[in-house]
Amino acid sequence: MDVGDHASEEAGVPAGDRGAGSGHVPVMLGRILELLVPAAEAVTGRDPVYLDATLGMGGHAEAMLRAVPRLRLIGLDRDTLALERSARRLAPFGDRVTLEHAVYDEIPAVLRRTGVRAVDAVLFDLGVSSPQLDEADRGFAYSYDAPLDMRMDRTQRLTAAEVVNGYPPAELARILREYGEERFAQRIASAIVRERERAPLASTRRLADLVRTAIPAATRRTGGNPAKRTFQALRIEVNGELDSWRRALPAALDALPVGGRVAVLSYHSLEDRITKQVLAAQAADTTPPDLPVPLPEHEPRFRLLTRGAELPSDAETTTNPRAGSVRLRAAERVREAT
């Protein structure tokens, strides 16, 4: 699924590609091409493969296909509407494009299904997509009054309404605290439980108003809409985003040959922390410290292509505010697994 063209501050999530003809370009597009095109162009003896694990509206994918004429795309998205829109956008590239309805932690199954043994470049553009945000009935944004839905994949059962109306108080508080980094998680969870005993919570506006009243007045005066952390936490829970991400990045790294590269665009600290930890572990020499020389089988499997997390330019955040919170990390495989 995508999580690629990203959400606004107003929805409690960041944002990027808004699709063809919208006047916006995908987040950090030039830098993504700098990082990933060389890995594809270096491939000999076969057509290179680019895996866009968060296809969205297909902006990054289109740019990669134009940049590397031999490139084959495998595009994943959990949102069927995003896949339909991307299919239209990418139709001119014909059989170079394969699109799959899948979550990015399903990468191994997708590669088996498509008969692809290795991919040469991988992009993850995490978060919620602009189309999802801008369609009021999806329930991602507190700026619209909409049903409490928040499903990226509308074929799944769990919705935000089921979470707020059915989860035990302690579990609600945990989700708000861990996924929303909300310091008033217990107060908000208690307010939700009291309110749902009167009548089920069904709309984004009612939830946003409830969160606002549950937070101390002095806190409400700063830091933007007080509901943004609650909405982020519910979205992550509904879509299983962090659990999927913990599985997806290692699976993508395993699919890269030597010279293959991965780039990750993250939009909040929880995603970026996982990315940093996984890539740092792969780029570390694990030779026991008491040995005098490094052991070949313990040498790093990847090298980092970014120094820490790269940020977008001031010019990009000015023209595309939804890119404001993005963090980019990238790595290249330098050794086969043993």
What's this, in brief?
This protein has 338 residues and is an alpha/beta fold.
Describe this protein with a few key phrases.
7-stranded mixed sheet; 11% strand; 338 residues; 14 helices; alpha/beta
Overall description:
This protein is α/β, with parallel strands linked by helices. It has helices spanning 29-41, 59-67, 80-90, 107-114, 130-134, 160-166, 169-180, 185-198, 204-214, 217-220, 228-239, 241-254, 269-282, 314-319, and strands at residues 49-52, 72-77, 97-101, 121-125, 261-266, 302-304, 327-333. The protein has a seven-stranded mixed beta sheet with strand order 3-2-1-4-5-7-6, with helices on both faces. Helix 3 (80-90) links the parallel strand 2 (72-77) and strand 3. The radius of gyration is 21 Å and the shape is globular. It starts with 28 loop residues before the first helix and ends in a 5-residue tail after the last strand.
- Beta-strand proportion: 5-15%
Please tell me what the overall shape is.
globular
**Amino-to-carboxy terminus distance:** 31 Å
Number of helices: 14
Average pLDDT, all residues: 88
What structural class do the secondary elements suggest? Answer: alpha/beta
Helix content: 40-55%
Low-confidence stretches: 1-24
- Write down the secondary-structure element order: HEHEHEHEHHHHHHHHEHEHE
Q: How many β strands by DSSP?
A: 7
Sequence of strands across the biggest β-sheet: 3-2-1-4-5-7-6
Q: What about the largest sheet? A: 7 strands, mixed
